[in-house]
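Technical note accompanying the year-one report. For the benefit of new consortium partners, we illustrate the data format agreed upon in the data management plan: each record pairs a sequence with a structure-token string. No post-processing was applied to the example shown here.
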Amino acid sequence: MQRLRELPWGALRTDVVLPAIGRVLQGAAAELEVERALRSHPELSRDGRTAAVEAIFGVALWRRRLAWEASGSQDPAVLLLCLLRDLGGLPEAQAAALACAPPPPRRTDAPLRLGDLWSLPDWLEAHLLSELGDGAAAFCAAVAVPGPVCLRANRLLCTREELGRRLAGEGIETRPGALAPDALHVQGRNPNLFGSKAWREGLFEPQDEGSQLVGMLVEPLAGETVLDLCAGAGGKSLLLAAQGAHVLAHDPDRARTARLRTRAARAHATERIEIVPAPVAADRVLVDAPCSELGTLRRGPDARWRIDAARLPSFPPLQRQLLETAAALARQRIVYATCTVRRAENEEVALAFERAHPELRRTGTLHLLPHVDGTDGFFAVAWDRLRR
């Protein structure tokens, strides 16, 4: 909540944000509405842009808490007023003037339910209480603020220390990550990372420290092949290539693999990454499986409101199917990973798979949580094939 009290709310323009907030509450993606609002109003000052972004994302995230503060109102202007007054700490008169809405009475009590306090849909409130127990509130607090901007130094071109010095020379301050050896956390608000010379030269990729640790669990030996079975846009493929592997990247989404080609060229990794149209045998296989993505809620303010809970049961069968594909192709190691906090997609899938494959031995487990480790939420298991 403290960060909401430190924003330049005085620069907020209601004509910019209220239409966007209304569309978000009707189901539009907050990120797209932010882009639309900023593109439509290039005249906004830096503070005006910051206030607009935070207002749209703020109501998108806190809609249930704000409705509670407003005694049930769903009016976009009233919810914005409550964001400014009750969470942003503005005086009531100033909040009402900025939001162009009459203030509802202040609540004198405090939210009792986890869902009201941290703005969760009912299904997610129940799920987190079941999965995390006493840790649910701390998890919610951790995903209620944006995650840190984390970079991975591209080992093909530089060390973490060299990258830190290069960025400092461009006015971008960083500190080393505590967990992953190539991780740097960016300090300060809104540095121009993608305008930097270091970015243009391919010296780094944005990648959460937890994601970097998942990639490291593959542990490719120099010259080994690694099949990235669900490569997506290639964040982990790029990491594996930087570790010396020859990466065979597969994903059915051609738009994502096209993006991977672009990223690989910028990272000087083209010769190390081969995009394959179908899964093929490899020394090691990474199954970075499609999942419910509950571990990355802090990366999208309205993600919790856009997840279709009815789809959750469909993930474990798909994940098992992908693992069976990996089992038929991996000569040495399989790594299974998700970015969620559901036992049904994590440990239960892993246990069922290893029971069906006695020829594999578990050699590593990774379990990361935002409120414990400071990373996004990840689960990963590595299995090695037993040698006869």
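Partners are asked to follow this layout when depositing records. The longest helix spans residues 46-69.
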